[in-house]
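Researcher: Last one for today. Full complex below.
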Amino acid sequence: MGRPRGFDEATVVRSAAELFSTRSYDGISMDDLVTHLGVHRNSLYKTFGSKRGLYLVALRWSLRHHIAPLVDRVAAAGDLAGALRVALGEPATEAGLNLLLMAAVERAPVDPEVADELAPVLAAFDQAARTAAGRHPDRDEQDDDGVALALTATILGLRLRARAGTPGTTIDQAGAALAHRLTRHT
Amino acid sequence: MGRPRGFDEATVVRSAAELFSTRSYDGISMDDLVTHLGVHRNSLYKTFGSKRGLYLVALRWSLRHHIAPLVDRVAAAGDLAGALRVALGEPATEAGLNLLLMAAVERAPVDPEVADELAPVLAAFDQAARTAAGRHPDRDEQDDDGVALALTATILGLRLRARAGTPGTTIDQAGAALAHRLTRHT
DNA sequence: ATTAGTCAAGAACGTTCGTTCCTAAACTCC
DNA sequence: GGAGTTTAGGAACGAACGTTCTTGACTAAT
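Model: Here's the assembly. Have a good evening.
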């Protein structure tokens, strides 16, 4: 009963995640959200409670629909070089990684709930990289774990470089070279 | 002539850089700066023009006094493993790297002047990593450049992980393992 | 001693922020 | 076809933002 809502909640969440991936949390106003999402203020507050509530929902959506599949593809990559190619190759995941980047840098330190959302995702990232790396009996196990952690860091770092303005060709070069090197020595 | 100023400009800039390294640009208000720096509003505006002006001066100060020396130590490290240890080992540079991190992620995309400040610094970082890696005649030159780029990305990525809440021991493990691996294959 | 110039202190400015209130419209159920 | 309920729309709220203005304190040169 009651008037039916004139918007699709899933669509709104997806659009919000996209918007939050372009600028910082504080850099996006409620007016921006209202304008960009085409949904009125009142509806947003009714549905998500607050700006932070909408942000958290959008973040969780992005982690689930963008990052989680990426993690799966990394795990299935076979080797570290493939994992790197998978993580950096797909432009569709750029928005998800950007949102993850900003959540980690500027939100997690001041919002414990954001930190709690990120921790398992980053751990899963590490685990996936670990899986992609495979076991090598002649190598120290801790060593492999550490390299997997470093791979996650490298993916995020390269994405950060791209966001900071480093040309895409340079990023691609770094990714390709690292993949090449990792492959040769694995 | 005139009343002498009751604060040291260099000290203020250093304190501002430290404060800006803890939270996002928008997350720090002018009141926060006035309180933390112990300098009055009017003096800050007289000296730096605006909040953004103070931020830019603080950013440049940090790049020059924290990042530039770090880049030099990376270049002098001798090999990639040493470069990684140098970059992650010193807690004194954490503030500088955090500020660099947030500047790259959230300011550079919306403030061209910040992007212009960061670009040469990141390029210098790459160059230093390139120097630390050294030349290996049996290896492709582009390959070495790419690995140097990746090292910069890894340093930033690991620093990001630390900021997002990943335990320090985990970060250290990743750094040590990567250093170990790089050393063995270099 | 007076004057001119700079700085400190704090009130106050107009805007913008996130949020809430109020009313009209649109639907289901009885 | 009212009654009841939920949404849409827009105005309006207090608070906080970056910035400016006004006043009084202080110092150096005249």
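Chain A touches chain B through 52 residues (CB under 8 Å). Residues 59-184 of chain A form one domain.
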